[in-house]
Description:
Layout: H1 3-22, H2 30-50, H3 61-98, H4 104-114, E1 120-125, E2 131-136, H5 146-149, E3 158-161, E4 167-175, E5 183-190, E6 203-207, E7 213-217, H6 228-252, E8 271-279, E9 282-290, E10 309-317, H7 324-368, H8 381-396, H9 417-437, H10 449-481, H11 489-502, E11 506-512, E12 518-523, E13 539-542, E14 550-556, E15 564-569, H12 571-578, E16 585-589, E17 595-598, H13 611-620, E18 623-624, E19 627-628, E20 631-637, E21 640-648, E22 661-667, H14 674-719, H15 734-761, H16 765-769
Antiparallel strand pairs: 1-2, 1-5, 3-4, 4-5, 6-7, 6-10, 8-9, 9-10, 11-12, 11-15, 13-14, 14-15, 16-17, 16-22, 18-19, 20-21, 21-22
Amino acid sequence: MTPTxxxxxxxxxxxxxxxxxDMPLLGGVRPPIALLCVLVLALAGLTAQVLGPAGEQPxxxxxxSSQQHFAEDGAIALRxxxxxxxxxxxxxxxxxxxxxxxxxxxxxxxxGKTYQKWTGTTVLDLExxxxxxxxxxxxxxxxxDKDVLTGDKALKPRMVRLETGDVRLMTMAxxxxxxxxxxxxxxxxxxxxxxxxxxQFRSMAVVATGGEILATAGFEQSEALNTDQERxxxxxxxxxxxxxxxxAARETEQDPVSAREPGSRGYPGVSGxxxxxxxxxxxxxxxxxxxxxxxxxxxxxxxxxxxLTVVALLPVVEQQAAAxxxxxxxxLAAGALVVLGLLAAAVLWATVQRPLLRLFLESxxxxxxxxxxxxxxxxxxxxxxxxxxxxxxxxQLGGPTGDPGGRQxxxxxxxxxxxxxxxxxxxxxxxxxxxxxxxxTDDSVSIPASMVADQRDRTDLxxxxxxxxxxxxxADLVSTSRLIDPDDAGAGGALLExxxxxxxxxxxxxxxxxxxxxxxxxxxxxxxxxxxxxxQPLVRVSGKGDKKPVVQAGAPLPGRKGMTLVGEVRVxxxxxxxxxxxxxxxxxxxxxxxxxxxxxxxxAFEELPRDALADLVRAGSVHxxxxxxxxxLLIREGRGTTVAAAAPFSGGGVAADIxxxxxxxxxxxxxxxxxxxxxxxxxxxxxxxxxxxxVCLGWVHLVVARPMRAxxxxxxxxxxxxxxxxxxxxxxxxxGAVVRSLELLRQQLQAQKQTQARRLAEPEPGVRGR
Length: 770
């Protein structure tokens, strides 16, 4: 067995391992160029998808979102109504229990005068089960059992079905004390659709767990329709409401924490949108929302625990399909990106990758000792500087002289940065027009009429909430005023303190005598008087010139002429009622269009930001028929469009005639309408293109351009004779491989220089003999 066969594999293995050590392991110029190609193709596919007609829905997303917000508003109104009724009944029972005994007939009479919100009330003797007094609708008592009065669910509101098939919510409170017989006060409420303005063509339903519809509103009576076509459409809508309500009930059964989007758009419960069938060119769209506590962490809601869901149904005109050229439009934009992207990649390959790989091969050849062939010097930039330095090093190592295959070139200003800038320009030729010029919109964009109508109707709903809140505040003061004894200031102050703790809507409560002097108070210092309670409105605003408006509600004390219980309503409480997603900026203004409360920050009594909004407020305050009406309009200014609405206070209660108006407005670009969505998609595509440029070209600049500039400087210093500076490779890539080869050349030159120095130091043989 010859030794050569055992040695050759070893030598070959060493040679292969040396080659692997010289080859770049990570990074280099090839990965960012490959990533550039991949990202360009991905962005091109995304561009063809989002700029063409693909993905467009038959109903604009803005219309679906508006139905979701409408259902949320209805759920909030229903939940607040249920909770307020329960709170009022419990508060009344607590006040009666704290005072002297009152006959059952008197209890129901005073209750009916203070609150007109129950369909029927009954006082029941708990020991005998005898009905002591009853008013309004007859309340059945078959549902009363031991579980209603004892256990964990004692006195909890119950839903009871009447013999007529209607469902009522029964609310209970215990009357009496230790030395008095106990009585049960029962009040029944209809679980009807909240008394809100549904607008034209919209219908709403209250749905129980399991999908049973408890109440509906907005459907016309079949007998009132004139044609069979209208009756068929009504039957279609009723069928859609039944099917969508069952589907919504299944969706809302999941816990908000496990929902797909819990608390989306600021709503704490489960809400969403559904799309039904189509009939006669109109698609049934629905929004649903479960009843949820306003703040589950701080206050439990009775209404939220009933498992109810509100469904809002609106048939909308089906959106026309996009033209066939839209698909070609997206394909052309994607094709242009592919061409420019591949051209940019080709520039980087020809001007950066290829010269760098050539330098890698040449430097490795010289480091191995192959000095016979001149270095193939690139034409320009840092690569030319490095190639010229390698050729000079080859000559210094003893290679044959002659045509070096390249000339010493003038140092350029840009080098590798030039191709990078050219690549960026090529990609910007696509990004800038797509992001800034493509699919631009102006004030000619068509806004669906349903969006203007929804803005108007939801603004009216907010106005109704604020009006009801002020009415409730004044009604609470009326209920409290009957318990105040002005002659006992200490007891009156204690009662006001307790009332202030129960009602967070007030910042101060105080009793004024006929001279305007404070008899008893709780909370902050009174900021304004309340004269002429019998002549002026019981809800009023003052404090002009201060930082905050002073909103006051008053209630005269029974049997005490000139004495008034006044409550100052916190402006923050009113602001919280105005914050509704999808409605834009909302404000409450007085008859002079001066701001009293706002969903955003505001200055007390400041004017509206646009004259058109003030004109809208004045137009809404004009009495038409029975009274002022809500209005909505489009304000087109320049390239923008604003949807605005104004809803003056109307309806019942002491707050109906104070002359306040709720006005709202928002930029139409906030709507998810197809033209605006295309503009947003175009901007997004342009931004993604810019991100592509920054990532890929920044990568090349950091791992190739900067190291090559340093490498060129080091190679020239080495060629100029600097053999002391050690060259350290920083990266395992092509540049690092060239640095390693230069370091080997430096060591060879250093060894050659030392050998020459030793030879010069040795004496000649002939000199030693003499």
